[in-house]
Structures are given as C-alpha cells and as structure tokens.
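Per reviewer request, we include the raw input and output of the structure prediction for the construct analysed in the revised manuscript.
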Amino acid sequence: MNTELSKIASLISETANGDNWTGINAEQALKDISAEQAIKRINENHLNIAELTAHLTCWNHVIAKRLNGESMPPSKEEDFPVINVLSENEWSALKYKFMQSFKVLTEKIETKDDEILEKPIFVGASSTYRNLHGQIAHLHYHIAQIVLLKKIL
C-alpha cells in the first residue's frame, strides 16, 4: 500500500541517496570532500561542512524520537557541535552516521500509520505532517549549503 507516510519516507530516502527534485542528494553532496575541506570555514561566523553534516544527523534522530512522542530538544552541543579538528577516519565515521540517520528516520516512519499525520508530533507541537515535511526542507536547505561550500573550497 502506498500510504502518505510511505511517500514521505521515500522523499527522505531520495534526499539521502536517490533521485530527488533538487537533482542532488546528501551522498552526492559529500562525495570527494576530504576531512581537511570538511572543517574549513569561509569565515568564523559560518558552519563548516562537518558541522552541517553533524547538525543534520542530529535532526534526523530528533525527528525519529519525536515520532515516539519524545519532545526533548537536542543540546546545543548535539545540535551545532563545533568541529575544528577531524581525521579522515572521523570524517568517514561522521558521513556514515549521517547516512545511517536517514535509515533510522525512514524505518521509524514506516512503523507508523497515516492517522498520526494531522496529530501533534508530541504534546504541544505542530502536526507530524508539518514536522516531517519541515525536516525534508531542512535537509535540502543544508545540503545546498554543503554544495555551495564545496564549490567555494
């Protein structure tokens, strides 16, 4: 059955490594970026590629937890970690965790029924539908930043 939630899960999966409407996915965006490039900043007021990757990983997990009714926001360190030093192994691990976070989120979505879509994602919050589509937009927004930073570097 092709439910609305399965369609949303497909959109998230396509954002990770499929053919989505922007023409670039997370896997493509991060391809051929070294650890050295991932920590470079265009200036001290902007996040680097590694920090954006960690931020998106965090929010895929947050939304997955919110689908269980958990409302705890991430700490500042979880949401926006400062990453100034990064080995190639650490960068590979961060990219792996990022790609796995898409799987965690889509698998969590697939355990739910469409009836939750119009309900608050947790008590006092906006609808599950709005949060899931918001996360898709959030992913594309920051993936675009990664693409731009990659071109600048």
